[in-house]
Please model this.
Amino acid sequence: MAELQESREYRSLLIHTDAAARGNPGEAGIGVVIADSDGKVVKEFGRFIGTTTEHVAAYSALIEALRSAAVLGAQEVHVQSASDLVVRQVTGAQEVRQGGLQPLLIEARRLLLHFRRWSVQLLPRDASRRPGELANISIDRQRNK
Model:
C-alpha cells in the first residue's frame, strides 16, 4: 500500500474508486487509488465497511476518497468511479430515488466544495482494476478473521 506523504500538498489528484458487496445487501468493501498529476500513486486503500448495499458501498468509497484528498491538500480532484449510479447522482444527471442514499449524496457534494475544481466520471472498463481488488481483499480479510 502506498504511504501518505504528510508534508506534501498536491494541486491535482486523480481518484479511482470501486466497491464490492457480496449480496445486496451483503458484506461490503471499498477500494480507493489516489494518484498525482503525473500518475504516481500517492495513496491506496481498501476497507471492509460491514453489511450494506452496493450503492451505499460505492458512495462510501467516494466519500472516503474525497476525505483523503482533502487531507493530502488537493486543490482539485478528478474522480473516476466504477458506479454509474453515483456518477449520475453526484453530477445531477439523475435524482436520488432511494431515501437512504440522499444523506450520502449530500455528504459527497459537501466534500466536493473543499476543492476549487472537481469532476466525477465513470471509471472506464479498461482503466485501473486496483480499486475493485482492494475492495474485495478487504472483504476476504474480514471473512478470514
